[in-house]
Amino acid sequence: xxxxxxxxxxxxxxxxxxxxxxxxxxxxxxxxxxxxxxxxxxxxxxxxxxxxxxxxxxxxxxxxxxxxxxxxxxxxxxxxxxxxxxxxxxxxxxxxxxxxxxxxxxxxxxxxxxxxxxxxxxxxxxxxxxxxxxxxxxxxxxxxxxxxxxxxxxxxxxxxxxxxxxxxxxxxxxxxxxxxxxxxxxxxxxxxxxxxxxxxxxxxxxxxxxxxxxxxxxxxxxxxxxxxxxxxxxxxxxxxxxxxxxxxxxxxxxxxxxxxxxxxxxxxxxxxxxxxxxxxxxxxxxxxxxxxxxxxxxxxxxxxxxxxxxxxxxxxxxxxxxxxxxxxxxxxxxxxxxxxxxxxxxxxxxxxxxxxxxxxxxxxxxxxxxxxxxxxxxxxxxxxxxxxxx
Length: 390
Hints:
By secondary structure, the protein is α/β, with parallel strands linked by helices. It has 14 helices and 13 strands. The protein has helices at residues 24-36, 41-44, 46-53, 70-79, 114-128, 180-185, 194-204, 232-239, 270-276, 296-303, 318-321, 330-341, 345-361, 364-377, and strands at residues 2-5, 12-15, 97-102, 132-137, 149-154, 167-172, 188-191, 209-211, 246-247, 260-262, 279-282, 307-311, 324-327. The strands form 4 sheets. Strands 4-3-5-6-7-8 form a 6-stranded parallel beta sheet, sandwiched between helices.
C-alpha cells in the first residue's frame, strides 16, 4: 500500500505491507524508469497529481497504526473518513509554492540591491512557516518554473506581466505606476502605502487591494543582547556640520567626501552598525515619502532599538509615528538631529523595549502571514499549492 502525506517541504510517500519475496520492481525497474523519464511534473499537471495521489493529512495519519489491537483498528477506520482526506482546494495546512520575483535586473550584481535582501528576508519568513520559495531576478522572471504562485516585488518603473496559467500576488513596495495588465490579472495586490492602497481600494475594492507595509528581517535586525545620486539627509548633514559616518559609492567628489568610512557596507553587518549608532539618517527618493511608502530602513533601524532621523513621510503609521524623528524642511534638520542625539537614557531604554513590539508586528514573519492568507484565496484552478517529489 502506498500513501502520500502532506509533510513539508516536498511531501512524504509511505509504502507498507510490502512482500519481501516479490521481485517485480527488480525485474522491471529499467523499463519503468524509461516509461516515465520524459514525463515532467509541469506537463503531467501538478493539480492532476495532487488529485490522483489522494494526499492524506500528516496530522490525521496514525503513525502507530501497525501496532495492532482494537484501538489501532478504530484509528485506521477514522483515517478513511472524508474529513481525513486532503482536498487540493480546501486543505489549509498544505505548503504553498512561491516564486518571488526580485526586480534586480540580473543574478550577477543583484547582491547589492536592497530588493535582494528584501526578497531573502521574505523568503526565509515563508520557509519558516513551512512553504517552498524560489527567487528569480528580472532577467529570468518568465522562465518556466515549477513554483506555483508568483509573488512580485513591484518597484517603480519595473512592471510585471502576470502569466495566465499562474496565480499572481503583487506587493507594490514603492511606486504608484501599476499597469492595467497587473491590476486586471493579479489575484491580490499588496501596497506598502496606506495612501495609495486607499486610492486603489476605491476602484478595485478591499478584496483585491490591501495595505502591507515594508518590513525588517527579524533574524538580523535587533537591539544589542547609496548611489551616485545625492541624498537630502547627507546634504543637510554637510550644511549643518553634523558629524556622520558615510558608507557607499559615489561620494568621493561630493562635499560629503570627508565623512566617507567605506565604499561598501556588508549587509550582514548592517544591524551591528545600526545598533552602534547614536542615530541613523534616512530619506525617501522618487516621491516615496510623499506617497506614503515607508522606507525599509525605518523598520530596520527601529528593530535595532536606535533613533532614526528621516525626511517627512505622509501617513506614517500611528504606531511608528512617535519613534521616528521627522524633518519637514532644511531649517528643521538641525533641531531634529539635536533631538535625536539628545534622547535621554530612559527614552533609549523605551526604544529597546519597543523592539519587541516591532518583532510582533513589523517583521517579515508578520508580512508572510498576510501573503499566505492571500495565496490561500487565489483562484484554485490557477494555483499550485504543493510541490511533490516525482
